[in-house]
């Protein structure tokens, strides 16, 4: 889950208006009908492994993280086993991931804190999670939403783009988009909104060439420069 710095000019990316509430409900309803049980693409067996996977996913793809963690998570199930493994051996598992040295240091450090302060169990608390090494607001939001079903809105580059481009939630910063999503997203869509939007941004509303020709919400979207032809020139 790439966690790059977002903001700047992208918030004005060809978006003509903000979606009206009726359209917001229709927007989410269509995504929900197509994917009624959306899930993260990160692989994990428990909340601790989820936390580690999300920390490792910063500025990396979920595919790349999964390739590294399959062997790691077969051996390491909890913070105590991670600390026993140690930084050097951890690096051997995750060296294909960007920033692996810093991430390994953070994973060992957060594991030690979980053992010392939380009986080895990640806390369902935003501030406590954000206080862990390598864990920022987005990571904490992802973990709380995925592990405990909390109605949090983690904003990565995909969601930042989708929110601004479609008019669903406009903002110049990830935090502004997060607050806009929190305000705009009604029940019963709040719990799964993060997953629907990130998957939509990853596979349909792509950064360089949005695939508007197969978008479920294209008629609701406020993006001015919609693309209705394949790059090869074949229309649909």
In brief:
The protein has 236 residues and is an all-alpha fold. It has 2 domains: 8-36 and 152-214, Endonuclease Iii, domain 2 (Orthogonal Bundle); 47-148, Hypothetical protein, domain 2 (Endonuclease III, domain 1, Orthogonal Bundle), CATH 1.10.340.
3D architecture notes:
By secondary structure, this protein is mostly helical. It has two domains: 8-36 and 152-214, Endonuclease Iii, domain 2 (Orthogonal Bundle); 47-148, Endonuclease III, domain 1, CATH 1.10.340. It has helices at residues 21-34, 47-56, 62-75, 79-85, 87-94, 100-118, 126-130, 137-148, 157-166, 174-184, 193-203. Helix 2 (47-56) runs antiparallel to helix 8, helix 5 (87-94) packs across helix 6 (100-118) and helix 9 (157-166) crosses helix 11 (193-203).
Architecture per CATH nomenclature, i.e. the level-2 architecture of the largest domain = Orthogonal Bundle
| Global mean pLDDT | 92
Task: Bin the strand percentage.
Answer: under 5%
Count of DSSP helices?
11
Q: Give the structural class.
A: mainly alpha
CATH class label of the largest domain: Mainly Alpha
At the third CATH level, what is the topology name of the largest domain? Endonuclease III, domain 1
Specify Rg, calculated over alpha carbons. 19 Å
CATH superfamily caption of the largest domain: Hypothetical protein, domain 2
């Amino acid at each position: 889950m790439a966690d790059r710095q977002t903001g700047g000019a992208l918030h004005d990316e060809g978006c003509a208006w903000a979606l009206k509430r009726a359209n917001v409900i229709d927007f989410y309803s269509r995504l929900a009908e197509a994917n009624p049980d959306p899930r993260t693409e990160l692989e994990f067996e428990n909340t601790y492994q989820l936390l580690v996977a999300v920390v490792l996913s910063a500025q990396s793809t979920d595919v790349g993280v999964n390739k590294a963690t399959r062997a790691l998570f077969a051996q390491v199930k909890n913070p105590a086993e991670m600390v026993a493994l140690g930084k050097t051996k951890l690096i051997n598992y995750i060296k294909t991931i960007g920033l692996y040295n810093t991430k390994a240091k953070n994973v060992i450090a957060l594991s030690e804190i979980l053992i010392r302060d939380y009986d080895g169990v990640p806390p369902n608390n935003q501030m406590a999670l954000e206080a862990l090494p390598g864990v920022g607001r987005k990571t904490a939001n992802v973990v709380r939403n995925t592990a405990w079903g909390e109605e949090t809105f983690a904003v990565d580059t995909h969601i930042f783009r989708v929110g601004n481009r479609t008019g669903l939630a406009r903002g110049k910063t990830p935090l502004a988009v997060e607050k806009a999503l929190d305000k705009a997203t009604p029940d019963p869509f709040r719990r799964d909104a993060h997953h629907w939007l990130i998957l939509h941004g990853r596979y349909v509303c792509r950064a360089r060439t949005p695939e508007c020709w197969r978008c479920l919400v294209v008629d609701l979207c406020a993006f001015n420069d919609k693309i209705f032809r394949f790059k090869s020139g074949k229309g649909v």
